[in-house]
Design goal:
The protein is α/β, with parallel strands linked by helices. It has helices at 43-53, 60-84, 122-129, 138-143, 153-160, 199-209, 227-234, 237-240, 249-252, 254-263, 269-292, 311-320, 339-352, 360-363; strands at residues 2-8, 14-23, 30-40, 94-105, 115-119, 132-135, 166-172, 175-182, 190-196, 300-304, 326-328, 373-375. Helix 1 (43-53) crosses helix 2 (60-84), helix 2 packs parallel to helix 3 and helix 5 (153-160) crosses helix 13.
Length: 379
Amino acid sequence: MYAVGIMSGTSMDGIDTVLVDIHGYGKETKLKVIGYHEYPMPIDMKAKIMKACDEKDSHVDEICSLNFELGYLFVEAVKVLLHKYHILSKDIDFIATHGQTIYHIPFQKGQLLPSTLQIGEPAVLAYELNTTVISNFRVMDMAAGGQGAPLVPYSEFILYSEEHKNIALQNIGGIGNVTLLVGQDLDQVQAFDTGPGNMMINEACRILYHLEYDDCGHISAKGTVINALLDELMHHSYMKKQPPKSTGREDFGEKYVHYLVDKYKKEKPQDIITTLTYFTAKSIGYHYQTYILPYYPLHKVIVGGGGSHNQTLLQMLQKELYDIPVYTQDDIGYSSDAKEAIAFVIMGNETLHHHFSNVKSATGASDYVILGNMTLPPR
């Protein structure tokens, strides 16, 4: 059956949409990617989302409206995808959408309960495209005592696990996260966020260069590491937390980057970009050396997400991992950009089959649970 996956991540650089032909479920899943399209995030929409994510500047009425605005934007993104690949909306069996994260509280903070909020109203998608929509994947895992993240590990287990091989799947989106596959044993899957991916680099590029990102790592390739800044970053409180753990914009977002850029304003802009890039690589290497390699020898590392296009970052990461082969999703025949959108198609498919799709060893949940809310077509 035909399905569409939608992913709008913490980088907010675009809306990833993927068209998939999918059959079966669990380890019997058969999946073929028909096409992918990145719908550009309008500048004004990005500004609205960033404001909504800000604890001081956000307003509930604006978030309420933004939920529907994003829903209509997701509809347009899906229509462009379907037109590109000559598919009619009536032929789509379901849509799986992650939504746009506004805030995520993985652990209790004072009187604030562990909770999460993604917006991009699924009813708008269901009505406009007259199809079933699966959304809000994180909340059931959190209801079961998990952190609601990371969720991608289940799809990675389905697609990449190999008998007698230990494989690390490293996603570098706004946030970096790793999934460790130990053979084909789901109970041994481990996953956690390694820290920032592109988030800090992108924000620093906006501040210092008025660019949305460091294209292919050209800026970071010209700079040198600022040791004082790197040392400060490596002593961030997140680095000391034990897995399973997750993070986001609340730890490594605009506020933190603006503070660092101002503190190190006497340094060369390119050196700040280089240092932030190296921090992403080094934070990944640190977590591997501390929590993975002492227990599991790795056969290979597969990198996905927007960071896989940053050649400087990939070179830094390879040095951090020594002789462990580092590949990208594209190297092995998958799309680095479509990875997370594909993951939510797989999870949505599991939901339709009344089958779990969280990995409790990764999120800390007490049970394997069926994820997602289902919005039925109105007609």
